[in-house]
């Protein structure tokens, strides 16, 4: 029996067996190209359109406004670059939060290198944008505002609806990356006043490598992938039919159990936060209430992320750091820097993200294992030279 505990649902989720089941025939009997005129093609086309309807209805959108992509990274690139290229004659200024995913920040940086101007908004200690700062940043040449719906690291929910209204008043395109929230919290494109919205299947128990960009009817957005006339000429490339089918089923299941799942995850999350935040030198990152149901992000003074994660993995607990890890050296993540967390505290940050199959027993286990690991690491670093953890890492990689 697998006694390991997976609490890294912010990175990816296991594919729901019902999703896998629904996908299988589309690899074999129903393998058609959705652009083909014959029956094989028409069957594939019908399946793609069913998924498109499910996803559109989950967002309060119409099916023609959904463009399938290879995931949220492509959807984010599409939104940022597509809005910039299409509106270049009108203006070359964009506004974004500094806590966006790299899939938004990197295209913005690319645009900056080509002469576009980007205003990065301030955020408070919880990582929230103040709509007043958005209002102050808007200029006559602003063409896009991009603020995520829920932060993937610290779980904070952003006031997207208020920002969306400001964008609308200014006639500016509004994009939100809702990858972490679609299917878990209500996400309605009209309630949020957004023109562009990114999502991904594998964060909601669907397959990897498929996602979508919602593009409001009439929005001026250029395509970034050129070729055939797929997806109403907005995204070239043969549709990944099995993945799109899986995406649709994953979203349908998520919508059916959304409320129940959110309530259950909030309860597990709050048990975990309450049990861990009382440890010496522990800090909760992100908003205490306005946060993703399954997200726990904590910093522990006097312990470093990588050592904590290796020790947890050794105990069968799969978690992640709140930091971008580059070849073993831990730089504080851009999110933790943006919320003003001192680097020495950011260095001991871990993210535990709960999901559909985590239980109260998992939380009990985490409430035993995490404090032990932190205590051992602190004792090790206080008592003797820091050798225990690298040795353990070497031992692991030798297996
Ligand atoms: C995971 C994630 C992405 C990237 O999605 P992929 O489908 O893996 O490319 C983008 N934004 C957020 C907020 C995410 O959590």
TrEMBL record:
It catalyses: (sulfur carrier)-H + L-cysteine = (sulfur carrier)-SH + L-alanine. The modification N6-(pyridoxal phosphate)lysine is found at residue 203. One of its GO terms (cellular component) is L-cysteine desulfurase complex. Keywords: 2Fe-2S, Cytoplasm, Iron, Iron-sulfur, Metal-binding, Pyridoxal phosphate, Transferase. One of its GO terms (molecular function) is cysteine desulfurase activity. InterPro entries: Aminotrans_V_dom (IPR000192), Aminotrans_V_PyrdxlP_BS (IPR020578), Cys_deSase_IscS (IPR010240), Cys_deSase_NifS_bac/arc (IPR017772), Cysteine_dSase (IPR016454), PyrdxlP-dep_Trfase (IPR015424), PyrdxlP-dep_Trfase_major (IPR015421), PyrdxlP-dep_Trfase_small (IPR015422). GO terms for biological process: [2Fe-2S] cluster assembly; amino acid metabolic process. It is found in: Cytoplasm. Pathway: Cofactor biosynthesis; iron-sulfur cluster biosynthesis. This is Cysteine desulfurase IscS. It comes from Candidatus Segetimicrobium genomatis. The gene is nifS.
């Amino acid at each position: 029996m697998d006694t390991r505990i997976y609490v890294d649902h912010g990175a990816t989720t296991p594919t729901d067996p019902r999703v896998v089941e629904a996908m299988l025939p589309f690899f074999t009997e129903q393998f058609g190209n959705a652009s083909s005129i014959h029956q094989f093609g028409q069957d594939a086309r019908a399946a793609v359109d069913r998924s498109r309807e499910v996803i559109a209805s989950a967002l309060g959108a119409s099916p023609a406004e959904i463009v399938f992509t290879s995931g949220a990274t492509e959807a984010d690139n599409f939104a940022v670059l597509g809005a910039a290229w299409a509106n270049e004659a009108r203006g070359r200024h964009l506004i974004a939060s500094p806590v966006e995913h790299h899939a938004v920040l990197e295209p913005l940086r690319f645009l900056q290198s080509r002469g576009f101007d980007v205003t990065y908004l301030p955020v408070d200690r919880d990582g929230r944008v103040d709509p007043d700062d958005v209002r102050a940043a808007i200029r006559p040449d602003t063409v896009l505002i991009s603020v995520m719906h829920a932060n993937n690291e610290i779980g904070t929910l952003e006031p997207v609806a208020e920002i969306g209204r400001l964008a609308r008043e200014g006639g500016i395109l509004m994009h939100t990356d809702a990858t972490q929230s679609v299917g878990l919290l209500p996400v309605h494109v009209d309630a949020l006043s957004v023109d562009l919205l990114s999502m991904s299947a594998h964060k909601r128990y669907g397959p990897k490598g498929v996602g979508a960009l919602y593009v409001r009817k009439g929005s001026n957005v250029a395509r970034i992938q050129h070729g055939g006339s797929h997806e109403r000429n907005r995204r070239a490339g043969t549709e990944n039919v099995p993945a799109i089918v899986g995406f649709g089923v994953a979203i349908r299941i998520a919508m059916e159990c959304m409320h129940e799942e959110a309530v259950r995850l909030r309860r597990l999350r709050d048990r975990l936060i309450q049990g861990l935040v009382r440890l010496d030198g522990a800090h909760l990152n992100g908003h205490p209430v306005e946060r993703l149901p399954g997200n726990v992000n904590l910093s522990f003074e006097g312990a470093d992320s990588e050592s904590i994660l290796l020790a947890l993995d050794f105990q069968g607990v799969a978690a992640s750091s709140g930091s971008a890890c580059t070849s073993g050296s831990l730089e504080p993540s851009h999110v933790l820097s943006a919320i003003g967390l001192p680097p020495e505290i950011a260095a001991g940050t871990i993210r535990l993200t709960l999901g559909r199959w985590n239980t109260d027993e998992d939380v009990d286990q985490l409430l035993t294992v995490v404090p032990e690991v932190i205590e051992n690491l602190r004792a090790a670093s206080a008592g003797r030279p820091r050798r225990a953890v690298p040795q353990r890492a070497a031992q692991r990689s030798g297996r």
